[in-house]
Each structure stands twice: as structure tokens, then as C-alpha cells.
Amino acid sequence: MTEYLHLLPAYRQYAEVGIEERVGWIRADRWQETADARAALARLEDLLSYPPRDRMPCLLLYGDIGMGKTKIIRKFLRDHQPISDRGTGVTSMPVVAMQMPAEPVEGDVYGERLNAMSAPGPSGDETFRLKTTCRTRMLIIDEIHALLTGTYRQQRVFLNVIRFLANDLKVPLTCAGTDLARQALLTDPQLAERFEAFHLKRWSNTQQFAQLLASLESIMPLRQSSQLGTAAVRRKVLDMTDGFTVRIFRLIETVAVEAVRNGKETITFESFDGDNLVLPLVADGAAH
Ligand SMILES: Nc1ncnc2c1ncn2[C@@H]1O[C@H](COP(=O)(O)OP(=O)(O)OP(=O)(O)O)[C@@H](O)[C@H]1O
Ligand SMILES: [Mg+2]
């Protein structure tokens, strides 16, 4: 049996299986720990371990569409899953994440949703429940750029609620969104002061990018080694994707699928030139 030395030991078995199974594997959702993702997770861990104090630090994870913000949050949630106490039947949720609604609905939807969580008051109140029963130690709000689709008034309400959460909840608040969301947050001087920012930058020709391609090569179930480690391929991939994480993953997945289907079993510089290389519609990055 071939040894598939170009693959990580745990992944060699996948190179053995049939074509469609491998295509399915290549396209499946997975988590890849990139340099920036690792740094962002370390920041989140640090925040989580913060002892309660009057003004808890807040973090804004921002970057272009498809840079992996939600992926990082999901990974962090997996690392801090709810724990059920069988005796009491109580589930504690160390990290609670929610998403901004995708579009404004009737009324002050942002305000109402978030107010429901933050209205101060005794039992029954959602904040109280989170902190006592659920022992929540961090609140995450993803896709905060959705606030920009609201009216001016909705935006002010939303920012007020964020300020309330940041000031009074006494658990660290993490928000994730695009650069526009960052700018909206900065229009509130108090929030500007409270939030530290972590920027997920677009990929450029760095050692970290070389590492990302190398690690993709080491897990893609191709039977031959590929040229993802060469400078030429690195430049080509950056050219074709403008350094957006989502496009890089999609592009490598596409050429890997092609290499499995056409029997070449390897990704070379030419793989990126193929006439029949049909790239998914992520060109403007806003496909979803
Ligand atoms: N660390 C990662 N491991 C594996 N795939 C990733 C990773 N980061 C990004 N991706 C790929 O990029 C896609 C987009 O990532 P994600 O949804 O996290 O981006 P986002 O920054 O939240 O975008 P948006 O601004 O649209 O919410 C994912 O569906 C996945 O295919
Ligand atoms: Mg997202």
C-alpha cells in the first residue's frame, strides 16, 4: 500500500477511498486553525478568564466578509460547550452567542431583542438568568454589521443596548462584524473606549499564508503530493482570491475536487489555469 507521506498520518486513510467519497470529504465543513484564528481565539480565552470587575473589557472581532469571524466564534463555542448538571437539571452556558437579525423587522427589533436580555431586574429577567443559572461568562454578538441596515433610530437604540451590556452586564462582551460595523461602533465615544479591536486581515504573501497552503495540502485526500508549497502557486492563489479566506478555501477545494475527478491526484500551478475550472460564485465575497 502507498504510504501517502505528503499527508498527515491521521488523514492518509482518506486518500484510499473512492472518488465521490473523497469529493464529499473535501467539500465538508471543517475547522482549520490559521495563524490569525489562533491569535483571535487566544484573545477570546484571555477575555473569558478575566475576573469580574466594574468595567469588563470588550472585544470587537472585525474583518471583511468571509474572513472567518463566524468560524472562530463557533470554534470558541465548541471549546466552551454547555455543561449539564444531571443532579439539578441545570445547564450552565459559559459562553452565549447570538446573531444580529439579518434584516430589520417591524419595530425596534434590535433594541427589543437585546433589551430582553439586558433589562435590569430580579429573577425572570434574562440577564439575571444568564449570569446566575447559566453561569455565563461571555456574551458574543455576531454579524453586528446587520445594524447598519436599520434606520438611524434603530441604530441608536442598538448602540445604546450594546453600551448597556458593556457597562452593566459585568461579563465581557464580544462583537463580530465588518469594518463598517466597527465604524458605527466608534461613533459612540463610550463604546470606542471600551472595545479593543482585533482585525482579521486579508491574506498576503507571508509565512502564515505559506503555512495555510501547506496545511491544506497535508489534509486534502489526494494520492500524490501537490505544489501548494511553491511561491508561484502562492502568488497565483492570492491573485485569484484577493486574500479573502472564504475564496482561498473554496478555490483549493475546487482544484482538489478537480484533481480527484480527473485522476491527476495532484494540484499543480496548471490546476489553477484549467479552462474547465468552474469557480463557485464567491467572486464578490457577498454571495451569502
Ligand atoms: N478557520 C477556518 N477553517 C475552515 N474554513 C474556514 C475558516 N475560516 C473561514 N473558512 C471558510 O470561509 C467561509 C466563511 O467563513 P465565515 O462564515 O466564518 O466568515 P465571516 O467572517 O463570518 O463572514 P461574514 O462577514 O459574511 O459573516 C467558511 O464557510 C469556511 O468555508
Ligand atoms: Mg459571519
Q: What does this entry look like structurally?
A:
With 288 residues, the protein is α/β, with parallel strands linked by helices. It has 2 domains: 9-30 and 203-272, no CATH class; 35-200, P-loop containing nucleotide triphosphate hydrolases (Rossmann fold, 3-Layer(aba) Sandwich). Helix content is 43%, strand content 11%. The chain has 12 helices and 7 strands. It has helices at residues 12-15, 19-27, 35-48, 69-79, 109-118, 126-132, 152-168, 179-186, 189-194, 207-217, 231-241, 245-261; strands at residues 58-63, 83-85, 90-92, 95-99, 138-142, 173-177, 195-200. The strands form 2 sheets. Strands 4-5-6-1-7 form a 5-stranded parallel beta sheet. The chain is globular. Residues 119-124 and 283-288 have low confidence and may be disordered. Adenosine-5'-triphosphate binds next to helix 4 and helix 12.
Cα shape: globular
Task: Characterize the biggest β-sheet.
Answer: 5 strands, parallel
Structural class: alpha/beta
Q: Within the CATH hierarchy, at the fold level, what is the topology of the largest domain?
A: Rossmann fold
Fourth-tier CATH superfamily name of the largest domain: P-loop containing nucleotide triphosphate hydrolases
Strand order within the widest sheet? Answer: 4-5-6-1-7
**Oligomeric composition of the shown chains:** single chain
Integer-rounded radius of gyration: 22 Å
Write the SSE topology.
Elements: H1 12-15, H2 19-27, H3 35-48, E1 58-63, H4 69-79, E2 83-85, E3 90-92, E4 95-99, H5 109-118, H6 126-132, E5 138-142, H7 152-168, E6 173-177, H8 179-186, H9 189-194, E7 195-200, H10 207-217, H11 231-241, H12 245-261
Parallel strand pairs: 1-6, 1-7, 4-5, 5-6
Antiparallel strand pairs: 2-3
Protein name: AAA+ ATPase domain-containing protein
Domain AAA+ ATPase: 55-244
Organism: Rhizobium binae
